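Re: export button greyed out
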Amino acid sequence: MSASLPCPRELALRLLHDMLRIRRMEERAAELYGAGKIRGFLHLYIGEEAVAVGALHALAPDDAVIATYREHGHALVQGVPMNAIMAEMYGKREGCSHGRGGSMHLFDARTRFFGGNAIVAGGLPLTVGLALAEHMQGGKRIAACFFGEGAMAEGAFHEALNLAALWQLPVLFCCENNLYAMGTALARSQSQTDLCAKAAAYKVAAQAVDGMDVLAVHQATGAAVEQVRAGQGPYFLEYRTYRFRAHSMFDPELYRDKAEVEQWKARGPIHSYSARLKAEGLLDEAGFLALAAQVEAEVEAAVAYAEAGSLEPLADLCRDVYTSAPGTQVQP
Amino acid sequence: MSHRTTYREALREALREALQRDPRVFLMGEDVGRYGGTYAVSRGLLEEFGEGRIRDTPLSELGFVGAGIGAALGGMRPIVEVMTVNFSLLALDPLINTAATLRHMSGGQFSVPLVLRMATGAGRQLAAQHSHSLEGWYAHIPGLKILAPATLEDARGMLWPALQDPDPVLIFEHAQLYNLEGELDETTAVDIRSARVRRTGTDLSLIAYGGTLGKALAAAAQLAGEGIAAEVIDLRVLRPLDDATILASLRKTRRALVVDEGWRSGSLAAEIIARIVEQGFYELDGPPARVCSAEVPVPYAKHLEDAALPQVPAIVAAAHELCG
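Workaround output, generated via the alternate export path:
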């Protein structure tokens, strides 16, 4: 452990590495979108990387995770291979959802990544159920759910918090407050903008944390996870963060000032954290460049993997609507 | 072997058996515990199995149906009770957007072994927010399986195979059936795949399910006295539909009358007739017909409610028209 960093050097560097992996994978995905290789919706997480990276590194590998339609980063950090994520965006059968989900619906049973859910707040009740199952089976794994502040205007948020608190379930509610529900600012859509107060209204422990600071995210999440795992009920974390890019590839960004975006970019999670690592003597420029080159190679390999991937045969169009052994497909 | 029982008790026996046989099974919903179930189906189960497995929920259909899906994903076998189909509309999002899609959307990685029970149907003067028959809507959705037990045997026997099914299964219990009383034949094998012929006949096929089965059988009994031998098919499974049983009956009777408590437009009856026409057009002696609910929100006043629903005289009249 370094003198002032609250985590071992290996983890400190891993946090930077994972933020870079998300950033470069998504920048490349945006290029590929422009080239027509990726279609549908593509919601970029760029600017918010510190949240997924800091939070997921504070969870155990077998904890359950549910995220939103802006979930490339969460899937990657949870352990879904970049190859499978890129292939999914390409709609290839080698994708982590065999091309059935796309960017918004990355799934991976192996890492207990229960998906990108594209219904705002849709993942929250599911997470409560996953935690209920764990609780009833006497396990120690917790269930974490990522959602935006916009989800807190949905009934599902309130029903989920009430249930989780009522039944004292091991749920970590991870609110990524990026200030805009698509194009609608928080203050224009919710009467109470103190998000922790909403959680506290359900007697859920709540804390806000600087979501641009990966170490702060990691620390706050670690403390919350400890409580949840100890059986003290659910916990709500508000990560204050900002989306640098448009909501999706179709968003002309008429609802926010360029100056506001630039202000937040000045606090960008990657450069501020790498500067800190350098100041701490944990990283030098050569080390940074080596890390960046490693990430670049991983991204290019993922693109090559996706390019070389195959298309699912049309004969399998109706596969996996029902669970059945091959050849016993249920007809509608 | 048989014993005298009611539809309600048969459902309760099925719940009890499932809770005893599989520790992963639990029941949750509004008033399923202390109250004993809105229709008294789960009475006594809280005392027998405890609060861990008989879970009273808040009035949060969206929340607890979603939690049921999550619990199913997490390795449990939840039975979620929604008080009526009308209230299930508050949970359409988790049911349609998640339970029905997850298997496909995840490329086959996640199945949702959820069982959802709810009351459906009219006939108790509960007006338009407690009386509708929306199971046909649910039967529209790929990824769901839809059951409509109309007999004591099915009330007793459908739950266990539904729990063995790896996919979401919705069970619609017509609210008029809970007091149905009779001999339950314990030797009857119950599957959740097929339609059943409940009465054989040669002149006409009456195709019914759930709350309309009894009416179809009553109509068939009357028709028998009037020289028409009606065959009565109980669909039992509304998705996937058992086309083969329907068409086998039609090849014999050459006439089809569907009795459906849903509204006519875009109904399950419409789907069944479309399949009959697609697959059995040349077997038919005349156009298929249907008796459905009037296209009106179900009204409160008894005479209006009665007039809105499929009734035996209307079925008999339609049968005469077909066979005339």
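Chain A touches chain B through 47 residues (CB under 8 Å). The button fix ships in the next patch.
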